[in-house]
Amino acid sequence: MSSRTMCITQEGPANALALNKDYSQVVIAGRNVFKVFSIEEDEFVENCNLRVGKNLNLNFSCNDVAWNTIEDHILATAATNGAVVLWNLNRLSRSKQEHVFMDHKRTVNKVSFHTSEPTWLISGSQDGTMKCFDLRTREATRTFYSNTESVRDVQFSPHLHHTFAAVSENGNVQLWDLRRPDRCYQQFTAHSGPIFACDWHPEVTWLATASRDKTIKVWDLAGKPSLEYTIHTIASVGHIKWRPQRKYHIASCALVVDCSINVWDVRRPYIPFAAFNEHKDVATGVAWRGDPHVFLSTSRDCTLYQHVFQDATRPASKANPQAISLNSKGDVAYACQVNMNPVRGSAKLSGILRKAPPHSEQFCQVNSVMHRFLSKNPREMRCFHECARRYILTGRPLSDICDHNAAVAKDLNRQHVSLVWSVVKTLYSSKVGDFGQQTPSGNVSREETGLGVPQTTLGTSTGAEPISTGVGGDGDQHSLLGGGGGETPGGAMSAGEDETETDETPEQHFNGRIGLGNLSIPQGDFFFGDGEMDPLSVDFDRMNNGMMGMSLSNGLLGGSHILLDAQVQQDWTLPSEAFPLRHEIQDRSPPPEQFPNHGSPDLNDHDSQAVTVEDQPSSLLNVTTVPQIGLWDPSHIMVEMLKHHASLGDVQTSASVLLALGDQRRSLTTLDEATQEQWLLGYLDTLTRYRLWDVGTQVIQLAWIPSVMQLNQQSTTVHTSCGHCSKLLQRTGWLCDRCHSSECAMCSVCHQVVRGLYAWCQGCSHGGHLAHLQEWWQVNKQCPTGCGHICEYS
Amino acid sequence: MFEAHSINTEHKDLIHDVAYDFYGLRMATCSSDQFVKVWDQDEHENWNLTATWKAHSGSVWKVTWAHPEFGQVLATCSFDRTAAVWEEIVGESPVPGERGMKHWVRRTNLVDSRTSVTDVKFAPKSLGLLLATCSADGVMRIYEAPDVMNLCQWTLQHEVSCKLPCSCLSWNHSFSRLHHPTLAVGSDDSNTGNGGKVFIYEYSENSRRWSKTETLASVTEAVHDIAFAPNLGRSFHLLAIATNNLRIASLKPLVDSTVQSGHTRFDINMVAQFEDHTSTVWRVCWNITGTILASSGDDGFVRLWKSNYLNNWKSVAVLKGDGTQAQTDSSTPAVPGPSGGVATTSQSSTTRTSEETSSKWQAPVIKGRFQKMTWLGSDPPPPPIEKNKPFKK
After folding, report:
1. A118 touches chain B (CB under 8 A)
2. Which one of B176, B356, B360 has the shortest CB-CB distance to A342?
3. Into how many domains does chain B fold?
4. d(Cα A233, Cα B112) in Å, to the nearest integer?
5. Nearest CA in chain A to B47
6. A271 and B287 in contact by Cβ < 8 A?
7. A520-532: average pLDDT
8. Of A233, A372, A681, the CB nearest to B57
9. Touching B: A residues 190-229, CB under 8 Å
10. Within a domain: residue B9?
11. pLDDT at B336 over 60
12. How far apart, in whole angstroms, are the C-alpha atoms of residue A61 and residue A85?
């Protein structure tokens, strides 16, 4: 048999089609088309056009057509005018019309031949009756009254000789015995809407019904009718046809909306097993060619199609079998397809299963399991949560804030974030007095972290002597360099020292610093084991000889550490506290012109002092009065640092630092407002997800960007309610719309409406003018209303 | 570390989507059985089914939550060619003092598509109440509810044809005002000859139109899922793509290009590509900060990915997803826990075997519509086993 998708277009849409008994010919019938085609290998060949003759009356306008299952030349049509017309293809004349039964009063919806009795024809009509015709006597032998508005489909049972099923628009299915025309022997309501079609299963005692309620239902009629399967389709179902040799498969086409023809496995009633999308309009009929892989269909788009299974689309194959979702805690919800039947192929199974290709069996045995993977240690979430809660963003000096936040971050084992705060403190905290506080804390942390840091401090003292010579020698040159380069920081001094850099270290300033610090020679005196520490030792030297560069290098150090940090989190032993911070850089840079004159000699002096007298705070403090800034603006580094954190997904740090900086953030000129806004909004969004409303509100209040500041002013209404009936006070003033009084605002002493401050007892909620109440309670203890509550005024 | 629990959803067909709400405390699932179910977490972290309803007359492909600012709102899309918006409303309490009965009502049905609607997503809330859908005929549609208080009224704002059948879409959730509204659309067209399968669409305020700005030409296989990473503070965007492998693309807006064309051009780089699933990757999903990516594939594993400071993406965890062969995994067995009010215990293998032999074949079908599912053969097999690799530094 041919197996190829092919089509032929007609002058009009066909309402129905029928195949002859050996599936080699097809007849299509509609309002103005009525033809017989033979089905060739790859085309339809028109055999006969039955719509011929002088008098093309309504008898030619067909709702349905049936091909006799035994006599290959007999056709029957159901005409829209109520006629049932018999056609004989063997007639020699041009017109093949054999006989017209004019028994029905209204349109005939369906005609159907008995499967084994060639002379029995049954019809169902809009007038609510079914008629059985005997082709030998050429008359309607019996009339069956359905007691319904209209009969949409009637089909002889292939199993019970005398039984036929009829479905009607009121949703009922009736089973009739041909020999008992007085009443049906079984009737049940199958659908909530009109039933448009039914089809007997060719092998088992199932009847499928199709309805406007978008479902196809399969009923087992062996005993009492029982619903076996329900298929939910997307549109009203117009026609259905069981697929031959596939017990569970049925083809359907919709009456509206859906132009495709779907083949369903009744066991998986939600998604079509196969879909055929060739038609451009809804299909009007389906007929299998005896072969489970080939069927024909007519459509309102005027085409007749032959469909083959290999060209079908499989909607299920495109269906996503898995689902996954993450929530704010890091929990994973995951659903995936499972094989329902792990014992495939066992003897028992195959005994029950009909032999069918594995694909179709697999198709219906699907289900999903869902799992939830609880994040047992949601570190990220916990850190975020804790940081958000414990960070201080305002209300204290920046250095305090930074110290606190650094400690918080450290406490949560987020060393790199802790470091960020330290860096911020170093760069932006301008409080000289902080020095005293900071050094002890630095010591503490040094002891805590242990590893390499004590060695560093050790190095400070021991290394002092060897360096001192170097300092003496290079001091002048150094200060000259520093002086000369004062206005063009870094530029003149990047003397090819790049090899000491790590990749991420911000370029120029660092170079300049190294250029300044020629004294990096005695590296060996320090216990810096690994190469990554090299830049640190450079800084260290300079710390000894040049106060000026100290905080700079610390800042840079911090900057590079953050970057390094992700890599060597555990190894990291040098938080900024490793170096006693002698002073802070002032952000508001003093006039640079002072620098060459006064700054450098001082510096040199203190160099020697610092070397000889190691930890003399007073002399160091003197240095802070020297204006060093102008050399280098840390904002660039800051911006880089914050951006880096934001790009790592840690917008909390970026936003918090910005918030904590307060007005000093204005110096971050390279950070555009859009980015700042993005960070704040991003932080706020995350806070909202964790339902940290209070922190969110604080962020909004501290925000400096209008669009963020306004967030709290939108969609927030404060209502005042009447104290009596708790109805909202809509009007201005204190008149309640329900109580029609202002009693809720009365002073309980003077019984006047209180304007302005209303003082009340929180115990009994009575109150009034503050002065009156004060007066009252000087004398009395009980509530002025006499409610008996002993109010206490304090 | 993960602890695995199994949830008996009692969906009668494949589950196609699961979505946490904004706070991660509610969960919605949708299935081919045309039902949508909503689950709420109680104080003991158990998930309880609080609502289930037949949402569509075809497979429900996707379910998604709107920002809670707009209420408890879900959107679904289906094989039945529609997308729907649902709202949970609290009815009048029959008994005073008790919480009113909550139920979900359909607010609108979006019927513009002529074919299966394959994805639906709410826009970032800064854009208002916007909904994007895409369908198998390759049309992307943007709907807007002009009045956020009235979820019944949605106007079709834009209709853009992508030429290829669409399977998934993703909004770019960026908080930067410099980033135009951006959508990525993926196509599951399997013909590699049709070129790139991921398209970037951008909305231009000037022309008031959505237009295609980029096509990811390197992705020519069928794309099953895409997801923009939440962009809380990055200057670039990350897009995860589930195709025959897992890919992560970074899209860096080129600043100067905006001026010339009115549209952002992107510097697109594939920052990662993983073949670990060794089969089709079906889903991708980001965590809320855009730092961890989860992917799932036909190999039955969920894999979690994270990037280090150098933007190197690495696997940080592998979760065994389906239970059919959970016992093959040697790592610590998962702790089975009661979840969703449905007892799912790990069954010993002996129990399973006995049930298997006694089970005759029976379809997972239902007689009647609301009857309980019969699931012979076995319960969901023992819950999966987590396998956790510490994040390598």
Report:
1. no
2. B356
3. 1
4. 18
5. A372
6. no
7. 39
8. A233
9. 214, 226-229
10. no
11. no
12. 10
Q: Are B277 and B297 in contact (CB under 8 A)?
A: yes
Architecture, CATH, for domain A729-794: 2-Layer Sandwich (3.30)
Report the distance separating Cα B385 and Cα B321, nearest Å: 8
Q: What are the counts of helices (DSSP H) followed by strands (DSSP E) for chain B?
A: 2, 26
In a domain, B393, yes or no: no
What is the predicted ipTM?
0.80
Looking at the partner chain, which of B2, B225, B378 has a beta carbon nearest the beta carbon of A374?
Answer: B2
Q: B21-74: per-residue pLDDT in tens?
A: 999 889 999 998 899 999 998 888 788 899 999 999 889 999 999 999 899 999
- Higher-confidence residue: A339 or A9? A9
Tens of pLDDT, residues A773-789:
888 888 887 888 878 78
What confidence tier does A298 reach under pLDDT thresholds 50, 70, 90? Answer: very high
Residue B383 lies inside a defined structural domain of this protein: no
Strand order in the sheet with A139-145: A108-113, A120-125, A129-134, A139-145
- Give contacts of B174 with chain A, Cβ < 8 Å: 678
Q: What is the pLDDT of residues A452-466, one digit of tens each?
A: 333 333 333 333 344
With CB atoms and an 8 Å threshold, state whether A677 touches B175: yes
The whole-number average pLDDT for the span A375-386 is: 80
* Residue in B with minimal Cα distance to A281: B114
**Does A543 have pLDDT greater than 70?**
no
Contacts of A645 in chain B (CB under 8 A): 233
Top-confidence residue, B301 or A628: B301
Domain with B126 in it: 15-91+99-337
Separation in Å, CA of B78 to nearest CA in chain A: 10
pLDDT digit string, tens, across residues B156-197? 999 999 889 999 999 998 888 888 899 999 998 888 888 899
Nearest Cα of chain A lies from the Cα of B341 at a distance, in angstroms, of: 14
Nearest CA in chain B to A564: B309
Please tell me what DSSP assigns to residue A595.
Answer: I
* A364: chain B residues, CB-CB within 8 Å: 363-365
Determine which of B1, B115, B287, B298 to mutate to test the interface with A (most A C-beta atoms within 10 Å).
B287
A348 contacts on B by Cβ (under 8 Å): 357, 360
> Looking at the partner chain, which of B13, B188, B225 has a beta carbon nearest the beta carbon of A367?
B13
Instruction: State the Cα–Cα distance between residues B306 and A364, nearest whole angstrom.
Output: 38
* Token pair belonging to A140: 């309607």
Contact B204, B180 (CB under 8 A): yes
* Inter-residue contact A568 to A634 (CB < 8 Å): no
Q: Assess whether pLDDT exceeds 80 at residue B77.
A: yes
Of B23, B364, B384, the CB nearest to A367: B364
Using CB atoms, pick whichever of B7, B224, B289 lies closest to residue A371: B7
CB-CB under 8 Å, B7 with A372: yes
CATH 3.30.40 in chain A: give the residue spans: 729-794
Locate all alpha helices (DSSP H) within A355-452, ordered by sequence: 358-364, 379-390, 398-411, 415-428, 434-449
- A468-477 contacts at long range (C-beta below 8 A, 24 or more positions apart): A468/A608, A468/A611, A468/A612, A470/A518, A470/A519, A470/A521, A470/A522, A470/A545, A471/A519, A471/A544, A471/A545, A471/A607, A471/A608, A471/A611, A472/A608, A474/A518, A474/A519, A474/A545, A475/A545, A475/A604, A475/A607, A475/A608, A476/A604, A477/A518
Run of H or E including A303: strand A303-308
Comparing alpha-carbon positions, the chain B residue that sits nearest to A642 is: B233
Please provide the DSSP assignment of A730-754 as one string. -SSSS--TTT-S-GGGB-TTT-SB-
Residue B309 resides in a domain: yes
Q: Taking every pair of C-alpha atoms in chain B, what is the biggest distance, in angstroms?
A: 72
Q: How many CA atoms lie within 13 A of A135 on its CB side?
A: 22
Question: Using CA atoms, how far apart are residues B151 and B135, in angstroms rounded to an integer?
Answer: 22
